[in-house]
Design brief:
Blueprint (H helix, E strand, L loop, with lengths): L13 H9 L15 E4 L5 E5 L5 H8 L4
Antiparallel strand pairs: 1-2
């Protein structure tokens, strides 16, 4: 369950391929540049937001109410 996986490139995990295809970063890049990139997925399985590694959980909490 906690094995190391690839998040970029040809060997990227299918989950991350899907997440990145739905939401690029603020610069329009799909690849994950650094650890702790976060994705917000709603109850329908739609990727609604992508957060940079520097975004705190408190900042993400503000987005939760708008995507319920």
């Amino acid at each position: 369950m906690f094995a190391k996986i690839e998040v970029n490139g040809d060997k990227a995990c299918a989950l991350y391929k899907m997440l990145k295809s739905k939401k690029a970063d603020a610069e329009g890049k799909a690849d994950i540049a650094w650890n702790f990139t976060k994705f917000l997925v709603n109850g329908k399985g739609e990727v609604v937001e992508r957060f940079a590694p520097t975004v705190t959980p408190e900042e993400i909490a503000a987005s939760l109410g708008t995507h319920l």
